[in-house]
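> run fold LRP1B protein
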Amino acid sequence: KLFFTDYGNAAKVERCDMDGMNRTWIVDSKIEQPTALALDLINKYVYWLDIYLESVEVVDYQGRRRQTISKGRQIRHLCGLAVFENYLYTINSDNFSILRINRYNGTDVQALARLDNAKEIRVYQKRTQAAVRSHACEVDPYGMPGGCSHICLLSSSYKARTCRCRTGFILGSDGRSCK
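> ok
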């Protein structure tokens, strides 16, 4: 799945398949300017910063069990969001400090370090890396991913795929080759 935020005409948090299909709103009320998003891949939670409402919130992948983690004026200065174990990590854009926030109750906020001009943060940890299994976009004997001449995108599961073409090309009637 692909998770993303939008704060154009109607602010929301959404998800879709990697090929853009099955687009679903998971948060579309009491949300104004979601600017950062982080996933708890193990427990299947979505965290986001709303700098207009000055809040950090969480829902499950279906948009249920919504909770506010933290609220207050300090939120409007945060950018980037990552989750690891019991904490959320973010950047304070005023002084570029990395903050650690307890993700269960919003307390225990700690400045860890400063970086020059940081805008985003990511945590890489072996447990959050999905085990690679056979999937529909594997390279075929002719060197084409998933049998697609340009781009292979996983669909609703790792067994299904959609072929797409680079800009300026059109997908052929076979659904795999680009012209």
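The CA atoms of residues 124 and 152 lie 25 Å apart.
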